[in-house]
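Interim report to the steering committee. The following record documents the input for UDP-N-acetylmuramoylalanine--D-glutamate ligase (450 residues).
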Amino acid sequence: MTKQVLIIGFARSGAAAAKLLNREGANVLVSDPNLDLEDSHIQQLRTQGIKFTQQQGVELLDKIDLIIKNPGIPHTIPILQAAQERGIKTEVEVAEAQKYIKGNWIAITGSNGKTTTTEMIAAVMRAMPNAKGHTLVAGNIGTPVSEVTPDSSKDDVIVTELSSFQLTDTPNIHPHFAVITNIFSSHLDWHKTRESYVSAKRKITSNQTNDDYLIINWDNDEWQTLARTSHAQIIPFSRNNLTQTGSYLKDGWLYFKDEQIMAADQIGVPGDHNIENALAAIAIGRLNQVPASIIAKVLHEFSGVKHRLQFVSEYKNRKIYNDSKATDIEATQKALSGFTQPVILLAGGLDRGDDLSRLLPDIKEHVKAMVTFGQTGSKLTKLASELDIPVVETESVKDAFVPAFEFSDEDDIILFSPAAASWDQFDNFEIRGDIFVESMQEFIAQKEQN
């Protein structure tokens, strides 16, 4: 009997899942209230037999065997609640795509650093001498997993970044290498409790065996406790030298076990958090027999990931960084910790009710002046005022670069690191980061013309 599949939420992962399941011979219906039914992409998929509707009532569940939902859609919407009551299996795109992975699967998750770590690991694996296959990168990083796995081979390396949303609805997940960069309190508006969030992160190792590896940050008691629940071989990494059984920082050098890999100050991107990301990449590289000298060269040449503490320009002896991916407090704290120079901080965004006073010690230590905006702008302005730090509140990040530059002097850092999600003013952090960079470029162009 032909499988009947309902896809809730189109987006890129929904489109990829629709094409994959259609290729498998399933009858596929895509439901999304925001669909443009005249869109050329939708028209092209219709010619392949995929159906589309803007409706999302429970009547769509009749005869449905499987639901694939967009990872960010909560289970609390009526159609998913009704599906749960009827016992209809609900998954995300990764759950179907993983069935096609034949080669070495490396999966990365964490509250912060997972995208940079994913790119670092991919860069290290691409540099492996005499590799027979390709290193393919997918997941939460942008490319749906089902776009790369169906045609992959046993010689390929699949490096995937996985969010807590994806892990929640990916049963039977079983990467050979699982990486957990860290776990803080994040996305609690979706997960409701920290326990639920941590449980989602733990799923990355829940089906691993003693033949697999869990590479995990060892600098927190909770993360150590989580590691001990895994059946995989535990490979810890530690910036605080709490263990020397995996990768670690000692006296300014990065090691794997007793092997010296590189000096920490030779990593191509700044910050203590990038030392942690590099330690995870070193562990993966050495476990896969990538020579230490090659790992050191790759990490030295690594220049960062767009929107993630990305160095974008130097103007009038001010270095300018785009860290739009800093969608929570911890990410901005890590970004600030990477600089010894005075920082002009541009911050603000969606107000999720987080306790922004947690930023006070970091602002006091690193920040010379602030420009704030968005829903959290007034709260951040208040923090700056409490510390007698100069501050200007603007309407949006697109208005923020001019006052930021005016606050700055030579050798200062101008850092856009919002400490909040983008959804109060932008569809995603990528658009927000692009607008920051564009406003910076326009400012510099005007100055150069004068």
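The longest strand covers residues 104-109. The committee is asked to note this result when reviewing the revised timeline.
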